[in-house]
Amino acid sequence: MFLVLAHYGDQLARSVYDRLSEKHGADNARLLTSDDLALGTRWALRHEGQRMRTEMHFADGAQLLSDDITAVFNRLRFTTMPNFAESSEEDRDYAVMEMHAFLLSWLAGLKCAVVNHASPRSLGGDARSRAEWLLLAARAGLAAQAMRFATSAPASR
Q1: If we measure between CA atoms, which residue out of 7, 32, 36 comes closest to residue 17?
Q2: From edge to edge, which strands make up the β-sheet containing 51-58?
Q3: What CA–CA distance (Å, rounded) separates 8 from 27?
Q4: Cβ–Cβ under 8 Å, residues 56 and 106
Q5: What pLDDT, on a 0 to 100 scale, did the predictor assign at position 157?
Q6: How far apart are CA 92 and CA 125, in angstroms?
Q7: Where are the beta strands (DSSP E) in the chain?
């Protein structure tokens, strides 16, 4: 099974899913949004010694074991928890961070190929600022645009 993880409306992810479905059959590919993972999936997580195994049960009755996942194309950047929309900000933030940690752990524990590995900063890879990219480019010996940081505070003398 090929999984494509994306936010709602991600056209690139949809194109990848369509190509995987054409090439490997519709039963061997699945597109899941962050809302699907939070609301439409019932999870079972088992630790068997040093091995982690997950079962995903979907709203349509299908189920997927982590051992049956061939590859994951991950376009998620963050998780959403729409069922906490009416909760207090503290509860909503807590739920989002718990789901982020769960998905981070799940993606890290998969034994298959994962395109765009999750990191603590972002579920879809290490989200770097422009300044970080410029610094990395300069360290690698690439031409990089200079960047100046300033504040509006008066300079002390």
Answers
A1: 32
A2: 41-48, 51-58, 63-65
A3: 21
A4: no
A5: 55
A6: 23
A7: 2-6, 29-33, 41-48, 51-58, 63-65, 71-74, 113-115
The count of residues in the chain is 157
Residue 118 corresponds to which amino acid?
A
105-125 pLDDT, tens per residue? 899 889 999 998 888 878 887
Taking the alpha carbons at both ends of the chain, their separation in whole angstroms is 64
**pTM for the full predicted model:** 0.78
Q: Which residue has the tokens 């909503």?
A: 92
**pLDDT < 70 positions in the chain:** 126, 153-157
The token pair that represents 21 in the structure block:
């479905």
Return d(Cα 138, Cα 108) in angstroms, integer.
30
